[in-house]
Amino acid sequence: MNLENRYERGLAKLREIDGEIGERVVESLAGIAPDFARYLVEFPFGDIYSRPGLDLRSREIAVVAALTAMGNATPQLKVHIQAALNVGVTREEVVETIMQMAVYAGFPAALNGLMAAKEVFAQQGALGPASV
């Protein structure tokens, strides 16, 4: 596999999912860890997100669930909640995904996830009926 193609494929997928937010994360690493920034584009987005087995909606639902369950990745969770919305996941689906994690990761993790979702939804404008 051509590494440049891998990077370019990853960058295109990152833009499709995260838009400017994703690019800013990569740019923020340039001064401290440019190799890590490249890995961040190539592996998750160039290799994994670009696979044909799941659509982007399904992938982002899985990522929101995983980051909620981790309980220690709130900045990344917020980015991926926004990404989920960008690829067609509804607010209600985000909320239900996070609530489901209470069963497996505990109420504190789900509560923290819901608060992250509330912040993301508020940044988008007025909170709608599917919000927290």
UniProtKB/TrEMBL annotation:
Coiled coil: none
Ranges that cross the membrane: none
Sequence ranges assigned to domain Carboxymuconolactone decarboxylase-like in this UniProt record: 34-119
Domain of life per record: Bacteria
Pfam entry (one): CMD
Listed GO MF terms: peroxiredoxin activity
Gene3D superfamilies: AhpD-like
Protein name, entry field: Carboxymuconolactone decarboxylase family protein
Organism for this UniProt entry: Massilia eburnea
